[in-house]
């Protein structure tokens, strides 16, 4: 089913991804009012997908972002990817797209746009946020067997996902990451450790931090650095 | 006497006869003039009693006789014996008692025991104060308390001993409270020891032997336990001062005394530990100061101060080990204190050198030819034994091993080892203390060298049998086993053509002997003897292969620039600077440098100095070795990373799930024999193992790790 529908609708779009998304999707939804929700979702997918690969590729995502009126580095796009359970950064497969948009009950661009604030609320909720936080790391692993992310990317990612909740911690940690020489990359455990740190450790006095606990060493070092700076 | 015609004796008649006997007895007891009982008298009395008790009822007077006897007996005690005891006091009363007791063995006891007890105790106190008392008398008196119990000690214990112990405690409490203020610690201890001895003596002379432990316990408690801290901490004469002034006898006494009281030795051993730690730390400070003073002047005299430091540490150890063995009678508590003290300052290091390095250097100095220490074989053996003992206190044994191996390699490869037996002997000692793994590489090195000598003999034989294989120059090759030896740079030098041929010839020879073995040439360890045709006279120069290669370049050119030399030799700047300096700026100026300065710069030019000469015909041009310290430390660090990884994986493989702290603890325990892993280092390895998917953190408990098979 998905394959045939994508094939059917692929040719007209491939040439005109950029120019006509808004109009087209508006038109298609009005002209084919009887279309099922899933068909409309597929239709929307096709309007961004690369016909030869059958996926929405970085350019498609770029287009989607501009249609939604957000920049592609906006945390909401990451949230959208999380909702889709997208595997590869910069790409949405049709399955992922369907999964995400069905869950958001969005079969048009307008609905998708409207769904974004709801999605944000959902993500910030406690049960989902840790999952989203881990996803953000996982999603940034672009190479086969890659398990770590370089410091520079980590800093960007931290601002993106934790910047609004734990600004002081994120700022200081980034400051530290940039001056230290012990680590060039960060692994998932350290990534998760920092979130736990933000949640559990009183900041900036760090009074309840105990280096004898199993905190990743990078956080011990961070705390040491902070204490040295404070005194 | 006729059996059948026995006359019945009636009571009055019989008792009258008996009373005569009793009166006679009383007179004798009271010392009145009265002839002794004859055997006939006894016979008559006994026969009468016997008969009266065996007559047929109603003439059996057993009961009546007994009652009457008792009456008269009691009458005697109350009217005569007791008054006589009552009117006498102290010693006289006791004498009376013994007399009376010996006479009667009656129940005077109940009446007099309290008085007796007080009298005995007061005599004991008199004796304690130095007065002479009649010990035999006390012995007799106290025997009464024992005897009355008929095998049980209750009377002795309750009616005498308890009060005596109480008095003893009070007596010594009084004494101790004065002595502790007036006497120095040694004097106090002398008194205490003397008191204990006397009390023991007392027991053996007149107290019951069962009193000894109780009595001594009381005395020890009052004299020692109560004032233990005050005594040990006495400012000018306490334990600290005794250790400071080497008061061996007083310390022995202190041990003897305090070993008797519960937990008495703990504070002593603590002070001992503090003292040794302070002494050792002072040595470290001394060496540190000496090193920093020297820095200003000359740093070249490598580690003489450090050498002195190790010597002093050994002496310190000898001294206090003797204390432990002699004064402190080999007690484990003191062995532990000594160990802990040495661990504190032996791991401090001096002037940037770890103690592991210092010990290795110290050994090197003893084992190499012309080292700074001139010792007899026995003295060397003894010293090595002691160094190995010290090694036990060093936590970074792996660092020692690596430094040792580096230095051993130099000794072996540059023929600097003074004595093969000593080399093997220290390895045996190290093996005994640290295990076979610790020394296996070093043993391999020593063996390699023996094999290399054989190999060289074979090579020479091969050359004489194969005239076509001619290396052109005399060549000695030492073949080593990779892995035993420290790692060296190989194949770096661009070998001069003459030497390339040698290498080829040896390679051919080696292939005839072994297959599947790869030869790696380490030119940096090579030595060459070359002839220099100087104008004044030809000379033999003993140089390294690097130096020789540089000099041989001047066979083809008269003048070479720094960069030309560097390119032709294919060595790094560091190496080129080092070897050119040795040839043009040091003692022997084989090369003339332009400009003539004391340091090498990349713009310099060099020329062969054909005018060079020396009073010797054969000179050795030293090439200072590169400082290997940094590399050794890096190598050890790398090895440690592997060791920690392996340990964590081993632990987790068997435990599957483990808390962070336990994991760290077990890891430290596993590795402790070789080094003391830093907690941070372990955490770092855990981080790494998580990235490499050997471990993961438990989702719910962040302090728990799981092993991922």
Could you please describe the fold and organization of this structure?
The complex is a heterodimer of chains A (231) and B (709). Chain A is 65% helix and 3% strand. Chain A has 231 residues and is mainly alpha-helical. A two-stranded antiparallel sheet of chain A has the order 1-2. The longest helix of chain A has 16 residues, at 109-124. Chain A is elongated and about 65 Å long. Chain B has 27 helices and 9 strands. The longest helix of chain B is centred in the middle third of the chain and has 32 residues, at 265-296. In chain B, α5 (109-128) runs parallel beside α7 (154-182). Chain B has 709 residues and is mainly α. Chain B: Residues 354-584 form the Cullin family profile domain. Chain B: Pfam families: Cullin, Cullin_AB, Cullin_Nedd8. Chain B: GO terms for molecular function: ubiquitin protein ligase binding. Chain B: Keywords: Isopeptide bond, Ubl conjugation, Ubl conjugation pathway. Chain B: InterPro entries: Cullin, Cullin-like_AB, Cullin_CS, Cullin_homology, Cullin_homology_sf, Cullin_N, Cullin_neddylation_domain, Cullin_repeat-like_dom_sf.
């Amino acid at each position: 089913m998905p394959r045939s529908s994508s094939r059917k609708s692929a040719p007209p779009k491939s040439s005109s991804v950029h120019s006509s998304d808004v109009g087209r999707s508006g038109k298609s939804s009005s002209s084919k009012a009887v279309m099922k929700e899933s068909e409309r979702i597929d239709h929307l997918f096709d309007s961004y997908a690369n016909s030869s690969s059958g996926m929405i590729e970085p350019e498609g995502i770029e287009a989607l972002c501009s249609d939604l009126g957000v920049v592609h580095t906006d945390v909401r796009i990451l949230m959208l990817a999380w909702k889709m359970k997208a595997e590869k950064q910069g790409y949405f497969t049709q399955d992922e797209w369907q999964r995400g948009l069905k869950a958001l009950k969005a079969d048009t661009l307008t609905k998708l746009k409207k769904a974004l604030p709801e999605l944000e609320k959902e993500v910030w909720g406690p049960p989902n946020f840790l999952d989203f936080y881990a996803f953000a790391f996982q999603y940034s692993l672009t190479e086969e067997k890659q398990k770590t992310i370089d410091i520079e990317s980590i800093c960007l990612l931290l601002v993106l996902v934790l910047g609004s909740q734990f600004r002081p911690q994120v700022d200081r940690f980034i400051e530290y990451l940039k001056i230290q020489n012990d680590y060039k990359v960060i692994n998932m455990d350290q990534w998760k450790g920092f979130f736990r740190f933000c949640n559990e450790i009183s900041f900036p006095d760090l009074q309840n931090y105990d280096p004898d606990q199993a905190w990743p060493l990078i956080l011990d070092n961070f705390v040491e650095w902070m204490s040295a700076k404070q005194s | 006497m006729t059996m059948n015609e026995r006359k019945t004796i009636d009571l009055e008649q019989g008792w009258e006869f008996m009373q005569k006997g009793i009166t006679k007895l009383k007179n004798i007891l009271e010392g009145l003039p009265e002839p002794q009982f004859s055997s006939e008298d006894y016979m008559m009395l006994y026969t009468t009693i016997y008969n009266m008790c065996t007559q047929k009822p109603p003439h059996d007077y057993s009961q009546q006789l007994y009652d009457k006897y008792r009456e008269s007996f009691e009458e005697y005690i109350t009217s005569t014996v007791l008054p006589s005891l009552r009117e006498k006091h102290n010693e006289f009363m006791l004498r009376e008692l013994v007399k009376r007791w010996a006479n009667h063995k009656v129940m005077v006891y109940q009446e007099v025991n309290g008085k007796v007890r007080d009298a005995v105790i007061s005599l004991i106190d008199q004796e304690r104060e130095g007065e002479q008392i009649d010990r035999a008398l006390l012995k007799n008196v106290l025997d009464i308390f024992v005897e009355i119990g008929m095998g049980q000690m209750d009377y002795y214990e309750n009616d005498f001993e308890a009060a005596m112990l109480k008095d003893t405690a009070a007596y010594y409490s009084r004494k101790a409270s004065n002595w502790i203020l007036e006497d120095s610690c040694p004097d106090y201890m002398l008194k205490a020891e003397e008191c204990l001895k006397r009390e023991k003596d007392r027991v053996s002379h007149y107290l019951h032997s069962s009193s000894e432990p109780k009595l001594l316990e009381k005395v020890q408690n009052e004299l020692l336990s109560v004032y233990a801290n005050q005594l040990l901490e006495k400012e000018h004469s306490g334990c600290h001062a005794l250790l400071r002034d080497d008061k061996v006898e007083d310390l022995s006494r202190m041990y003897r005394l305090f070993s008797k009281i519960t937990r008495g030795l703990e504070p002593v051993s603590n002070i001992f530990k503090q003292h040794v730690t302070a002494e050792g730390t002072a040595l470290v400070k001394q060496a540190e100061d000496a090193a920093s003073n020297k820095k200003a002047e000359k740093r070249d005299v490598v580690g003489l101060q450090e050498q002195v430091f190790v010597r002093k540490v050994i002496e310190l150890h000898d001294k206090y080990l003797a204390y432990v063995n002699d004064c402190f009678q080999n007690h484990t508590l003191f062995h532990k204190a000594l160990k802990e003290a040495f661990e504190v300052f032996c791991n401090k290091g001096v002037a940037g050198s770890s103690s592991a390095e210092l010990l290795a250097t110290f050994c090197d100095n003893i084992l190499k030819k012309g080292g700074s220490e001139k010792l007899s074989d026995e003295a060397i053996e003894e010293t090595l034994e002691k160094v190995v003992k010290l090694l036990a206190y060093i936590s970074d044994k792996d660092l020692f091993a690596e430094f040792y191996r580096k230095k051993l390699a130099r000794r072996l490869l540059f023929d600097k080892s003074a004595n093969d037996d000593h080399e093997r002997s220290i390895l045996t000692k190290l093996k005994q203390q640290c295990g076979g793994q610790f020394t296996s590489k070093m043993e391999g090195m020593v063996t390699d060298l023996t094999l290399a000598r054989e190999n060289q003999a074979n090579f020479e034989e091969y050359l004489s049998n194969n005239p076509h294989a001619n290396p052109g120059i005399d060549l000695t090759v030492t073949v080593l086993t990779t892995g035993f030896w420290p790692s060296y740079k190989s194949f770096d030098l661009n070998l001069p053509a003459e030497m390339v041929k040698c290498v080829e010839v040896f390679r051919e020879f080696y292939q005839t002997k072994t297959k599947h073995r790869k030869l790696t040439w380490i030119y940096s360890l090579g030595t060459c003897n070359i002839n220099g045709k100087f104008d004044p006279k030809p000379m033999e120069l003993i140089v390294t292969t690097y130096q020789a290669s540089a000099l041989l370049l001047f066979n083809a050119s008269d003048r070479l620039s720094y960069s030309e030399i560097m390119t032709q030799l294919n060595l790094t700047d560091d190496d080129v600077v080092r070897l050119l300096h040795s040839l043009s700026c040091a003692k022997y100026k084989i090369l003339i440098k332009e400009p003539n300065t004391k340091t090498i710069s990349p713009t310099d030019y060099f020329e062969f100095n054909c005018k060079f000469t020396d009073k010797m015909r054969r000179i050795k041009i030293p090439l200072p070795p590169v400082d290997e310290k940094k590399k050794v430390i890096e190598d050890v660090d790398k090895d440690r990373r592997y060791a920690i990884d392996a340990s964590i994986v081993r632990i987790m493989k068997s435990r599957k799930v483990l808390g962070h702290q336990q994991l760290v603890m077990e890891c430290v325990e596993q590795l402790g024999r070789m080094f003391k892993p830093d907690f941070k280092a372990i955490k770092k390895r855990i981080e790494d193992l998580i990235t490499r998917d050997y471990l993961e953190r438990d989702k719910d408990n962040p302090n728990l790790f799981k092993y991922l098979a």
